[in-house]
Structures are given as structure tokens and as C-alpha cells.
């Protein structure tokens, strides 16, 4: 799932010799870990990024691996969340780039009956392609795991409460085609993800009131879509459907959209939304959403009512940890239902690990995958570095995109971090001029005492790609001078990253 960026501390779990006490750069076998044990029986519940990446690592280390998955390999990330939503957004992006068409000298020939020949989206075709690509990715993941000798068990798993004298547990599986099966596990990884949060006053019906997982049921562009929630998911869908031609109203309970993001980036995106015709209702909380025949009514807390054809409720997710037998097995859950883990993905229960959105550490597919890999490296005795959230890059797929890494400007301005800040507008970059890009910026943050790059923000088309050199700099503690003294292509957007680094010389 797409999520707010910036470091978020994992839930604290105290272990004797826990990896949380280790410096980020150290690699060890972890407390209680043993050398790699070939033939260890590993059962993974959940086939999303955390699960299938863990399965590949465990198989590589010689374990016998079984993955229990009920909806298809890749889980919701591939089938109903990240892959389909970003495919939809990629389609919408083609329509936003036409904003610069006239300036670039590009026009469309007129069609019959005075049709100007403007680009438009056919939602039936768009959604068919979205789901086709999601299914293709799921099949590719399944084929890869089967090639590695990993068994995929279609069904729903539940962890047994007892440990045998040999140190094994049973995982009880309700098979998708009926019947039951018991799997013997020496090591268990829970990677069950999260589901859309449902409000009691806005229950989805899959037709007019929708969660983010149900948006692909639409075969036509909504006449008027109200998006409740201005976090990452809400902003991404609002921007995409606005570009696809829908009238969009975004209901935000906060002062601005994307309240958890870099303030300058969020203000820019909100300005873009308004310029493109979106209605943004700030400081407006949705009290209820009701179906009204062929439409919906969204009642706001102040008594106003917004009438529309459809409503997307994007108010976060709920960890999928119920009915898994976790607490009976000794796994500690937070009040929100998230599994508490340390930085090597251990729970309090013997040889039970967890990864992904069900842990509440940082709900990104990349973090889930890393948690899963770390879990298996640790459980099977391989060298392992504890999870370091300061090196996690995140991206919001609006147009333009927002990519972030490392410390934030707020941390520097508050005095929490002694850093220097530089900001360059993308519009002055020669390549940006050629492409007609007028909005966006590059921020770079460095440590004053050493000049080490400690963070950055990029707001630009393909920011998800452009953030990579800054991510490398943060992860490997490169200085601004080292970043600046690397050749860049001229003209290129990455040239502005080098320029930003040069402005921090001696800062």
C-alpha cells in the first residue's frame, strides 16, 4: 500500500540481546540464532511482498518452504492495491502530460461532428488492463516460487498454540477448495497484510460506496467522485480520477492534503489539484456516507451535504491479524491489532516472525519485503543487518510525484537534527524546460558537521526514479561533495541533484 513517507519507529519489543540494540551498520547472527540449518521447515502465512520475498530467501538457504495464501500470490499488494492502483495512475499520467502539449507544439486533429480529437480514457478497457496486469504479476510470482521448489498452499492459515518437544508448531489450514490440512513448522512467518478500514457510518457496497480495493469494479468514469481522506491513498486516487476526467471532491479533515508529508510538497500538490479543477474541502470531516439510488450523499460534520455519483472511503487500513491464533501462541499485539516485532522481525513467541502491514512498522511494500528477508536471514542463522528505517525511500504517485528519503525539514527546523537545507526549483533545469515541466523542486539535507547527505525530497515527474541517487547517498553516508563530484548527463533532471549538492558545499 502506498503510505506516508518519513521514518516511523517500529513498535518496541524487548528481547534479551535484541537487534534493536545493535548499531545499524553491524551484521551478526542475532541472539539465539544458529548457523544456517538446511532442511528447516518454514511455513509462511501470507503471499504478499513480505511473504514471497521471505520464501525465496528461505529456499536459497536450504529450508523446506510452504506458503499459505488465500487470494493469490502477491497478496493484496499485487491483486488489489499497489500494482493495480499504480497501473491506473500510470494511465492517468498520460492525460496529465498533455497539459504541456500546446506549448510543445503538439495538437490533435479534429474528429467528425466537430470533435476536437482530445485524449480520453475508456474505463472499461483501463480496468481490464489494470486487472490483467495484476493477475500476470501474480502468476509470475507463483511461477518463480514453484521453480525454486516452494510449495504454495491455497487457503487460510492459523497458528497452533502449542510447541512440540522437537520445537515445532502446527499451522492449521482451511483449504480454499474445502477440507483442512496441518503443516509442521519449525519457523513461522506471519505476513498477512492489512485490509481497508471501514467506517460504521460509511459502509461500502462495492458499487457506489467503495474502498480502495473495490475501485476496479468501475466500468465507467464516475460523473462525480467524492474521496474521503486526504492521505496518500486518497490523494493518489483523487488525482488519478481527476486526470481521467471525473469531477472530484476531496474531503480533508486537516488543514491541507497529505498532512504527514513535506509541507512545501503538500502545498504544491494541493495547488495542482485545485488548478486542475478539483474541489478540495479542507478542515472538513465526513460524518456519514449514504447510498441514494444512483448516487451518494456525503454528510459533513458541519451539516453540509455533498451529492455525488460515487464515494471512495480512503481512511487507512486495519491489520489482518484476527482469527490467526496469534495471542494464543504467545504473539503480542498492539491495541490496534498490529503484531509487535523487533528490528529483525521477531515476535515474543518462540520462532514466530512477522513482516509487512500487519506489523505497523511502515506500510510500504519495500519495507514488507525487507522485513521478510531479514526474518529468514535471522531465523536460519545467516548474517543479518537489523531493519534501518532511516534509509527507506517512499513515493506518492500523484502528478507530479513526491519522493522522500531520510530526515525531514521539520526535524532540522525544530533543532532535532543539526542540518543544512537547500531547495532548487525543477523548472530552471534545462531538461525540464525541454519537457515543459514547470512545477516541482529538489530539496537536499546535509549534516552540518560532516557534510553527509541525510535526506531529501523530490517533487517532479518520475520522482520515484530520481530519488535513487539520494537514497544511495543516505544509505552509504556519502557527503554532498561526493554526490556533487559524480558526472551527470547534460541535459538531465539528475543534473539538478548534483547542483543541489554543490550548493551545500561548506554549508
TrEMBL record:
SUPFAM superfamilies in alphabetical order: FAD/NAD(P)-binding domain (SSF51905), FAD/NAD-linked reductases, dimerisation (C-terminal) domain (SSF55424)
Cofactor: FAD
Keyword terms: FAD, Flavoprotein
Keyword field contains Flavoprotein: yes
Coiled-coil portions: none
Domain Pyridine nucleotide-disulphide oxidoreductase dimerisation: 393-500
Organism: Georgenia daeguensis
Taxonomic placement: Bacteria, Bacillati, Actinomycetota, Actinomycetes, Micrococcales
Domain FAD/NAD(P)-binding, first and last residues per copy: 41-372
Gene3D superfamilies: 3.30.390.30, FAD/NAD(P)-binding domain
Family annotation (InterPro entries): FAD/NAD-bd_sf, FAD/NAD-binding_dom, FAD/NAD-linked_Rdtase_dimer_sf, Pyr_nuc-diS_OxRdtase, Pyr_nucl-diS_OxRdtase_dimer
Record family assignment: Belongs to the class-I pyridine nucleotide-disulfide oxidoreductase family.
Compositionally biased tracts (Pro residues): 1-12
Name the UniProt record assigns to this protein: NAD(P)H-quinone dehydrogenase
